[in-house]
Amino acid sequence: MNKFSFLNFSNSEIKNINKGYFLVFLTAVISGFSIFINKFSVNVINPYIFTGLKNLTAAVFLTALLLALKDWQILKKLTGRQWLLLVIVGLIGGSIPFLLFFKGLSLTTAAKGAFIHKTMFIYVAFLAGLFLREKINKNFLSGGLILLFAGFILLKKLPYQLNQGDFLVFLATLFWAVENTVSKYILKSTDIQGRTLAWARMFFGSFFIFLFLLGTGQLSLVNNLNFQQINWTFLTSIILFGYVMTWYSGLKYIPVSRATAILLLGSPITTFLSLVFGGEASSQEILAGFFIIFGVIFIIGFKKLRQFLLEIKNYERA
Protein backbone atom coordinates (compact mmCIF):
# COMPACT_ATOMS: atom_id res chain seq x y z
CA MET A 1 0.00 0.00 0.00
CA ASN A 2 2.86 2.39 0.75
CA LYS A 3 3.90 2.43 -2.91
CA PHE A 4 0.33 3.29 -3.88
CA SER A 5 0.58 1.00 -6.91
CA PHE A 6 -3.07 0.28 -7.48
CA LEU A 7 -2.39 -2.01 -10.39
CA ASN A 8 -1.08 -4.60 -7.92
CA PHE A 9 -4.31 -4.65 -5.93
CA SER A 10 -7.38 -6.77 -6.36
CA ASN A 11 -10.76 -5.15 -6.90
CA SER A 12 -11.66 -5.62 -3.23
CA GLU A 13 -8.39 -4.00 -2.12
CA ILE A 14 -8.93 -1.06 -4.47
CA LYS A 15 -12.43 -0.70 -3.09
CA ASN A 16 -11.09 -0.62 0.48
CA ILE A 17 -8.42 1.98 -0.39
CA ASN A 18 -11.05 4.04 -2.15
CA LYS A 19 -13.27 3.73 0.92
CA GLY A 20 -10.41 4.71 3.22
CA TYR A 21 -9.53 7.90 1.36
CA PHE A 22 -13.18 8.85 0.98
CA LEU A 23 -13.81 8.44 4.72
CA VAL A 24 -10.71 10.45 5.70
CA PHE A 25 -11.65 13.23 3.27
CA LEU A 26 -15.11 13.16 4.88
CA THR A 27 -13.41 13.45 8.28
CA ALA A 28 -11.63 16.60 7.07
CA VAL A 29 -14.98 18.06 6.00
CA ILE A 30 -16.47 17.25 9.40
CA SER A 31 -13.39 18.75 11.09
CA GLY A 32 -13.77 21.99 9.15
CA PHE A 33 -17.44 22.18 10.05
CA SER A 34 -16.66 21.35 13.68
CA ILE A 35 -14.11 24.17 14.00
CA PHE A 36 -16.65 26.56 12.51
CA ILE A 37 -19.34 25.47 15.01
CA ASN A 38 -16.98 25.39 18.00
CA LYS A 39 -16.21 29.07 17.50
CA PHE A 40 -19.68 29.71 18.87
CA SER A 41 -19.95 26.92 21.42
CA VAL A 42 -16.72 27.47 23.38
CA ASN A 43 -17.87 30.96 24.26
CA VAL A 44 -20.86 29.72 26.22
CA ILE A 45 -19.44 26.84 28.30
CA ASN A 46 -16.38 25.94 30.38
CA PRO A 47 -13.97 24.23 27.91
CA TYR A 48 -13.14 21.34 30.27
CA ILE A 49 -16.81 20.67 31.01
CA PHE A 50 -17.60 21.09 27.33
CA THR A 51 -14.94 18.56 26.29
CA GLY A 52 -15.91 16.05 28.97
CA LEU A 53 -19.63 16.14 28.21
CA LYS A 54 -19.05 16.15 24.45
CA ASN A 55 -16.82 13.08 24.65
CA LEU A 56 -19.20 11.34 27.05
CA THR A 57 -22.23 11.94 24.82
CA ALA A 58 -20.32 10.71 21.77
CA ALA A 59 -19.34 7.62 23.80
CA VAL A 60 -23.02 7.00 24.57
CA PHE A 61 -23.87 7.20 20.84
CA LEU A 62 -21.03 4.79 20.02
CA THR A 63 -22.07 2.40 22.78
CA ALA A 64 -25.60 2.35 21.39
CA LEU A 65 -24.20 1.64 17.92
CA LEU A 66 -22.02 -1.20 19.18
CA LEU A 67 -24.98 -2.74 20.99
CA ALA A 68 -27.20 -2.39 17.90
CA LEU A 69 -24.57 -4.07 15.71
CA LYS A 70 -23.86 -6.67 18.41
CA ASP A 71 -20.20 -5.66 18.52
CA TRP A 72 -20.23 -6.33 22.25
CA GLN A 73 -19.64 -9.95 21.26
CA ILE A 74 -16.36 -8.84 19.67
CA LEU A 75 -15.39 -7.01 22.86
CA LYS A 76 -15.80 -10.20 24.85
CA LYS A 77 -13.21 -11.91 22.63
CA LEU A 78 -10.51 -9.25 23.03
CA THR A 79 -7.32 -10.26 24.78
CA GLY A 80 -5.90 -8.46 27.80
CA ARG A 81 -3.25 -6.87 25.59
CA GLN A 82 -5.87 -5.56 23.17
CA TRP A 83 -7.89 -4.08 26.02
CA LEU A 84 -4.74 -2.38 27.28
CA LEU A 85 -4.14 -0.84 23.85
CA LEU A 86 -7.72 0.46 23.74
CA VAL A 87 -7.35 2.01 27.20
CA ILE A 88 -4.09 3.64 26.08
CA VAL A 89 -5.86 5.15 23.06
CA GLY A 90 -8.49 6.63 25.38
CA LEU A 91 -5.82 8.02 27.71
CA ILE A 92 -3.39 9.53 25.19
CA GLY A 93 -5.99 10.42 22.56
CA GLY A 94 -9.31 11.08 24.26
CA SER A 95 -8.32 12.78 27.50
CA ILE A 96 -4.81 14.06 28.29
CA PRO A 97 -4.22 15.98 25.03
CA PHE A 98 -7.63 17.69 25.23
CA LEU A 99 -6.86 18.97 28.72
CA LEU A 100 -3.38 20.10 27.70
CA PHE A 101 -4.65 21.73 24.51
CA PHE A 102 -7.38 23.83 26.15
CA LYS A 103 -5.08 24.89 28.97
CA GLY A 104 -2.41 25.79 26.45
CA LEU A 105 -4.82 27.85 24.36
CA SER A 106 -5.71 29.89 27.45
CA LEU A 107 -2.03 30.85 27.78
CA THR A 108 -1.12 31.53 24.14
CA THR A 109 -2.64 33.02 21.01
CA ALA A 110 -5.09 31.12 18.80
CA ALA A 111 -2.78 31.61 15.80
CA LYS A 112 0.23 30.03 17.50
CA GLY A 113 -1.88 27.23 18.94
CA ALA A 114 -3.36 26.42 15.54
CA PHE A 115 0.06 26.49 13.86
CA ILE A 116 1.58 24.10 16.41
CA HIS A 117 -1.37 21.73 16.07
CA LYS A 118 -1.04 21.77 12.27
CA THR A 119 2.48 20.34 12.56
CA MET A 120 1.09 17.02 13.86
CA PHE A 121 1.42 15.35 10.46
CA ILE A 122 5.22 15.74 10.74
CA TYR A 123 5.43 13.80 14.01
CA VAL A 124 2.99 11.18 12.73
CA ALA A 125 5.07 10.70 9.58
CA PHE A 126 8.21 10.23 11.69
CA LEU A 127 6.53 7.76 14.07
CA ALA A 128 4.82 5.88 11.24
CA GLY A 129 8.07 5.57 9.34
CA LEU A 130 9.90 4.38 12.43
CA PHE A 131 7.37 1.95 13.89
CA LEU A 132 4.97 1.10 11.06
CA ARG A 133 7.50 1.13 8.21
CA GLU A 134 5.47 3.61 6.17
CA LYS A 135 7.63 5.04 3.40
CA ILE A 136 7.92 8.82 3.31
CA ASN A 137 8.76 9.76 -0.28
CA LYS A 138 9.90 13.01 -1.90
CA ASN A 139 6.34 14.02 -2.71
CA PHE A 140 5.45 13.83 0.97
CA LEU A 141 8.47 15.91 1.97
CA SER A 142 7.74 18.54 -0.69
CA GLY A 143 4.04 18.63 0.17
CA GLY A 144 4.91 18.85 3.86
CA LEU A 145 7.00 21.96 3.21
CA ILE A 146 4.05 23.51 1.37
CA LEU A 147 1.77 22.73 4.31
CA LEU A 148 4.26 24.32 6.73
CA PHE A 149 4.44 27.39 4.50
CA ALA A 150 0.64 27.61 4.63
CA GLY A 151 0.86 27.48 8.42
CA PHE A 152 3.36 30.34 8.44
CA ILE A 153 0.95 32.39 6.32
CA LEU A 154 -1.76 31.90 8.93
CA LEU A 155 0.72 32.68 11.70
CA LYS A 156 1.58 35.95 9.90
CA LYS A 157 4.85 36.37 11.78
CA LEU A 158 7.33 34.15 13.58
CA PRO A 159 7.12 34.38 17.37
CA TYR A 160 10.24 35.63 19.11
CA GLN A 161 9.74 33.24 22.00
CA LEU A 162 7.56 30.32 23.04
CA ASN A 163 5.66 30.41 26.32
CA GLN A 164 4.16 27.78 28.59
CA GLY A 165 0.94 27.73 26.59
CA ASP A 166 2.82 26.93 23.39
CA PHE A 167 4.61 24.08 25.16
CA LEU A 168 1.32 22.60 26.42
CA VAL A 169 -0.22 22.75 22.94
CA PHE A 170 2.92 21.11 21.56
CA LEU A 171 2.64 18.32 24.16
CA ALA A 172 -1.02 17.80 23.23
CA THR A 173 -0.07 17.58 19.57
CA LEU A 174 2.59 14.98 20.36
CA PHE A 175 0.07 12.94 22.35
CA TRP A 176 -2.34 12.95 19.40
CA ALA A 177 0.49 12.00 17.03
CA VAL A 178 1.38 9.00 19.19
CA GLU A 179 -2.29 8.05 19.55
CA ASN A 180 -2.86 8.09 15.80
CA THR A 181 0.21 5.93 15.27
CA VAL A 182 -0.93 3.47 17.95
CA SER A 183 -4.42 3.44 16.45
CA LYS A 184 -3.06 2.61 13.02
CA TYR A 185 -1.00 -0.19 14.56
CA ILE A 186 -4.13 -1.61 16.24
CA LEU A 187 -6.17 -1.42 13.04
CA LYS A 188 -3.34 -2.91 10.99
CA SER A 189 -2.31 -5.75 13.28
CA THR A 190 -5.63 -6.84 14.78
CA ASP A 191 -9.17 -7.47 13.57
CA ILE A 192 -10.51 -4.58 15.68
CA GLN A 193 -12.85 -2.42 13.61
CA GLY A 194 -12.71 1.36 13.35
CA ARG A 195 -15.99 1.86 15.21
CA THR A 196 -14.71 -0.26 18.11
CA LEU A 197 -11.55 1.86 18.32
CA ALA A 198 -13.64 5.04 18.13
CA TRP A 199 -15.76 3.77 21.02
CA ALA A 200 -12.68 3.02 23.12
CA ARG A 201 -11.21 6.47 22.52
CA MET A 202 -14.42 8.21 23.58
CA PHE A 203 -15.41 5.84 26.39
CA PHE A 204 -12.07 5.62 28.18
CA GLY A 205 -11.24 9.22 27.32
CA SER A 206 -14.47 10.38 28.99
CA PHE A 207 -13.64 8.29 32.05
CA PHE A 208 -10.22 9.89 32.48
CA ILE A 209 -11.62 13.40 31.94
CA PHE A 210 -14.29 12.61 34.54
CA LEU A 211 -11.53 11.74 37.02
CA PHE A 212 -9.78 15.03 36.19
CA LEU A 213 -12.96 17.07 36.73
CA LEU A 214 -13.65 15.22 39.96
CA GLY A 215 -10.11 15.73 41.23
CA THR A 216 -10.06 19.44 40.41
CA GLY A 217 -13.51 20.13 41.87
CA GLN A 218 -15.03 21.18 38.54
CA LEU A 219 -17.54 18.36 38.19
CA SER A 220 -20.19 20.30 40.10
CA LEU A 221 -20.23 22.91 37.32
CA VAL A 222 -22.30 20.46 35.26
CA ASN A 223 -25.28 21.31 37.48
CA ASN A 224 -25.09 24.94 36.38
CA LEU A 225 -25.50 24.26 32.66
CA ASN A 226 -28.39 26.03 30.98
CA PHE A 227 -30.52 24.89 28.05
CA GLN A 228 -28.37 26.70 25.47
CA GLN A 229 -25.18 25.08 26.73
CA ILE A 230 -26.79 21.64 26.73
CA ASN A 231 -27.93 22.16 23.12
CA TRP A 232 -24.41 23.16 22.02
CA THR A 233 -22.95 20.13 23.75
CA PHE A 234 -25.42 17.78 22.10
CA LEU A 235 -24.86 19.28 18.63
CA THR A 236 -21.08 19.09 18.85
CA SER A 237 -21.32 15.54 20.22
CA ILE A 238 -23.10 14.46 17.04
CA ILE A 239 -20.34 16.08 14.99
CA LEU A 240 -17.69 14.36 17.12
CA PHE A 241 -19.46 11.04 16.65
CA GLY A 242 -19.27 11.47 12.87
CA TYR A 243 -15.62 12.55 13.10
CA VAL A 244 -14.33 9.53 15.02
CA MET A 245 -16.46 7.08 13.05
CA THR A 246 -15.18 8.25 9.67
CA TRP A 247 -11.61 8.79 10.87
CA TYR A 248 -10.93 5.39 12.42
CA SER A 249 -12.92 3.53 9.77
CA GLY A 250 -10.88 5.22 7.02
CA LEU A 251 -7.57 4.94 8.86
CA LYS A 252 -7.81 1.17 8.71
CA TYR A 253 -7.17 1.20 4.94
CA ILE A 254 -4.68 4.02 4.26
CA PRO A 255 -1.29 5.14 5.68
CA VAL A 256 -1.65 7.25 8.82
CA SER A 257 0.99 9.72 7.56
CA ARG A 258 -1.13 10.61 4.53
CA ALA A 259 -4.35 10.50 6.54
CA THR A 260 -3.18 13.14 9.04
CA ALA A 261 -2.00 15.37 6.19
CA ILE A 262 -5.44 15.13 4.57
CA LEU A 263 -6.99 16.31 7.85
CA LEU A 264 -5.39 19.72 7.28
CA LEU A 265 -8.04 20.29 4.61
CA GLY A 266 -10.34 21.11 7.51
CA SER A 267 -8.78 24.59 7.67
CA PRO A 268 -9.78 25.80 4.17
CA ILE A 269 -13.18 24.16 4.67
CA THR A 270 -13.68 26.29 7.79
CA THR A 271 -12.65 29.37 5.82
CA PHE A 272 -15.12 28.46 3.07
CA LEU A 273 -17.95 28.04 5.58
CA SER A 274 -17.12 31.41 7.12
CA LEU A 275 -17.42 33.08 3.71
CA VAL A 276 -20.64 31.25 2.81
CA PHE A 277 -22.39 32.12 6.08
CA GLY A 278 -21.41 35.77 6.08
CA GLY A 279 -18.43 35.51 8.40
CA GLU A 280 -15.04 37.11 7.95
CA ALA A 281 -12.06 35.46 6.30
CA SER A 282 -8.76 37.27 5.87
CA SER A 283 -6.73 37.20 2.69
CA GLN A 284 -4.10 35.19 4.61
CA GLU A 285 -6.67 32.48 5.43
CA ILE A 286 -7.80 32.25 1.81
CA LEU A 287 -4.23 32.12 0.48
CA ALA A 288 -3.21 29.56 3.10
CA GLY A 289 -6.22 27.46 2.15
CA PHE A 290 -5.05 27.22 -1.45
CA PHE A 291 -1.56 26.20 -0.32
CA ILE A 292 -2.99 23.55 2.01
CA ILE A 293 -5.05 22.04 -0.81
CA PHE A 294 -2.03 22.09 -3.10
CA GLY A 295 0.20 20.59 -0.40
CA VAL A 296 -2.20 17.71 0.28
CA ILE A 297 -2.46 16.94 -3.43
CA PHE A 298 1.34 17.05 -3.66
CA ILE A 299 1.66 14.56 -0.78
CA ILE A 300 -0.67 12.11 -2.47
CA GLY A 301 1.22 12.74 -5.73
CA PHE A 302 -0.18 14.23 -8.94
CA LYS A 303 0.60 11.16 -11.04
CA LYS A 304 -0.53 8.72 -8.39
CA LEU A 305 -3.65 10.74 -7.65
CA ARG A 306 -4.53 10.70 -11.35
CA GLN A 307 -3.87 6.96 -11.47
CA PHE A 308 -6.02 6.50 -8.38
CA LEU A 309 -8.92 8.45 -9.90
CA LEU A 310 -8.65 6.47 -13.14
CA GLU A 311 -8.71 3.21 -11.20
CA ILE A 312 -11.82 4.37 -9.34
CA LYS A 313 -13.49 5.31 -12.64
CA ASN A 314 -12.59 1.99 -14.26
CA TYR A 315 -13.71 0.08 -11.17
CA GLU A 316 -17.09 1.84 -11.12
CA ARG A 317 -17.60 1.09 -14.83
CA ALA A 318 -16.84 -2.56 -14.18
Structural class: mainly alpha
What count of domains describes the coordinates?
Answer: 1
Strand composition percent = under 5%
Mean pLDDT: 86
Please give the count of helices.
15
The SSE order reads HHHHHHHHHHHHHHH
N- and C-termini, Cα separation: 22 Å
Summarize the amount of helix as a percent range.
Answer: over 70%
Shape: globular
The number of strands is 0
Using only CA atoms, what is the Rg? 20 Å
* Biggest beta sheet attributes: none
Show unreliable segments. 1-7
Describe the structure.
This protein has one domain (6-317). The longest helix has 31 residues, at 11-41. The protein is globular, with a radius of gyration of 20 Å. It has helices at residues 11-41, 47-68, 72-76, 80-94, 96-105, 110-117, 120-131, 138-155, 164-189, 194-215, 227-251, 256-262, 266-276, 283-300, 302-317. Helix 2 (47-68) packs across helix 11 (227-251). Residues 1-7 have low confidence and may be disordered. The protein has 15 helices and no strands.
Question: What is the strand and helix layout of this fold?
Answer:
Elements: H1 11-41, H2 47-68, H3 72-76, H4 80-94, H5 96-105, H6 110-117, H7 120-131, H8 138-155, H9 164-189, H10 194-215, H11 227-251, H12 256-262, H13 266-276, H14 283-300, H15 302-317
Helix pairs in contact: 1-11, 1-13, 1-15, 2-10, 2-11, 4-9, 4-10, 5-9, 6-8, 6-9, 7-9, 7-12, 8-14, 10-11, 13-14
